[in-house]
Amino acid sequence: xxxxxxxxxxxxxxxxxxxxxxxxxxxxxxxxxxxxxxxxxxxxxxxxxxxxxxxxxxxxxxxxxxxxxxxxxxxxxxxxxxxxxxxxxxxxxxxxxxxxxxxxxxxxxxxxxxxxxxxxxxxxxxxxxxxxxxxxxxxxxxxxxxxxxxxxxxxxxxxxxxxxxxxxxxxxxxxxxxxxxxxxxxxxxxxxxxxxxxxxxxxxxxxxxxxxxxxxxxxxxxxxxxxxxxxxxxxxxxxxxxxxxxxxxxxxxxxxxxxxxxxxxxxxxxxxxxxxxxxxxxxxxxxxxxxxxxxxxxxxxxxxxxxxxxxxxxxxxxxxxxxxxxxxxxxxxxxxxxxxxxxxxxxxxxxxxxxxxxxxxxxxxxxxxxxxxxxxxxxxxxxxxxxxxxxxxxxxxxxxxxxxxxxxxxxxxxxxxxxxxxxxxxxxxxxxxxxxxxxxxxxxxxxxxxxxxxxxxxxxxxxxxxxxxxxx
Length: 472
Prior knowledge:
This protein is 39% helix and 20% strand. It has helices at 3-29, 39-47, 66-79, 95-109, 123-126, 132-139, 211-224, 238-259, 293-302, 319-331, 347-361, 397-402, 413-428, 452-464; strands at 58-63, 83-88, 113-119, 143-148, 167-170, 174-178, 195-196, 199-204, 229-231, 273-274, 277-282, 307-311, 333-339, 366-370, 375-376, 380-383, 387-391, 406-411, 430-433, 439-441.
């Protein structure tokens, strides 16, 4: 190899090294500079009426069971006659994901216009173009699919900004919103690795669109038209489509035999609760740094309460977030329910909790470390006996400053009582840690030891994650 070739190779190596280092530096350092809530947003929250003295036209159903979550999706999609908009952070071709795909494909066959928005972080892993099921889905003439901020060379410096929303809109009449991804981790029969979550199904009893439906519909249109949302172009061979189309139809028939005829379901108000007011909170739709809008709104609502319960899978806070909790705890009896470290599925959240437990207690909050049969993925805030705030927002810096997030503020005593009853059960399954550090092992708590490998990995992560907390 002559000297010229050696110089060229060295230059190429240097360029690659500089590029890789720059990608890492930008993606790690840029999110450190976190935004504040704007005065305009503060004014908007101050002027928003989150409560009402009279029931509205939208009724609500609380969905905590994974199999019911799948069934209600099938019913909603089966009832669609005009349009379906589905947005999800994670969509996989596992059992739960394929069940939803089969239902969407059937709706498209009936002439329903379907739009699907999926975050682009997991897409290269679970929804590659070589995936026949997914390729057949978006090849349907009535189905459009977009990836939000897919990982490409063009936007390699913005990979941290994800779409964490999860909801379905149907026919201008009903929608479902919460924390479940479209995978069998959250949908269908419980199994090893399942997570428990919560959603709200909102159904309007009058013909026109409900107030909160319009808010969510407007949000979907805005994020669907973001520059970072890229349309997926069909390129699948006809013979593959034909075979997989038949597989979808067979799968849908099997689901109909198991759960009944979804297209005929019409008992939408049975088992629902009245809601005086439903209001959508969001962090915005752009793939970039965000102000803590959702947390600020929660703080303002909760700080006016006397009893506040927060349910979150894990807690990763900065100075502002600790101060928000302290503000709430100044007037309210503040309780926070999280997964016990031994039962959590997020190693970053578990290890940060071990590092910063005392800072959380210093806010005045009592903590309940829950040991449930399955990890809890639920995100909810209860304020007194009427307000319930439910959706996708985790009490961490990623949800606060980086990702798109949605929460519904629901003024309903019945919904509040339903969730409060469940939290009482979780309390019995927990170690209760009071703000003064006093610990009580409650009756249904089942002690579980960390295995040796987890102890070693958690010990290492407690150190390694410190410089990257703002990304978690």
